[in-house]
Design goal:
The protein has 4 helices and 8 strands. By secondary structure, the chain is α+β, with helices and mostly antiparallel strands. The protein has an 8-stranded mixed beta sheet, with helices on both faces.
Length: 195
């Protein structure tokens, strides 16, 4: 499925999960309410006001290599997912990019109430969404190296840790997940090269 389009799937015992492109102005309020919280400090936008959030996502929307999606559960916003082509992103200068690599970021919105399995289900749907495009062979994520919770969550989802890298705004831990059914080959992801 090409980027920039809606994707919807019914998840048993969870609801209808929809990925739709972010509307920079229409979604700025809900995104701002998430990124401005302490729990979202690793997203790096805590000091951005609503107008700055809209400006950032207008810029992302202008890039053919980067895409932002608002994720809804039964019509209610629950997460923000971003995808990118690593060779067109600063992360691509920090590790040996392989053909078929596709990058991602995930921010779970503020839950109405704690719900066991909520984050894991959304992460699983994000992974499935990325791999709907058969050309994508490996998902690359780069959580802040201090974000132990995110790294542990990705590990539980099957991601393999790669090297620490230095990006313009953070030190990050590369995490890799091969397309399901693809033979694992993490030789390129195990290097300890630093940017």
């Amino acid at each position: 499925m090409p980027d920039g389009h809606h994707h919807e799937r019914h998840v048993p015992r969870f609801g209808v999960v929809t990925f739709r492109p972010v509307d920079p102005d229409g979604d700025a309020e809900v995104i701002h309410s998430w990124v401005s919280q302490e729990r979202a400090r690793f997203w790096g936008m805590r000091d951005a006001d609503r107008d700055r959030v809209a400006e950032i996502y207008r810029y992302v929307d202008s890039l053919p290599t980067h895409h932002a999606y608002l994720t809804e559960r039964d019509g209610e916003p629950v997460a923000l997912f971003q995808t990118y082509e690593p060779e067109h992103d600063p992360v691509g200068a920090c590790y040996p990019v392989r053909p078929g690599d596709h990058g991602g970021h995930l921010l779970i919105g503020t839950p109405v109430r704690p719900e066991p399995g909520f984050t894991g289900t959304l992460l699983g749907e994000f992974v499935a969404f990325v791999f709907t495009d058969r050309r994508r062979l490996r998902l690359v994520m780069e959580p802040d190296a201090r974000n132990d919770k995110a790294i542990a969550r990705l590990r539980r989802a099957g991601f393999v840790e790669g090297p620490l890298i230095d990006l313009p705004d953070k030190r990050a831990r590369l995490m890799f997940l091969d397309r399901p059914g693809r033979a694992a080959d993490h030789a390129g992801s195990q290097r300890s090269d630093r940017a």
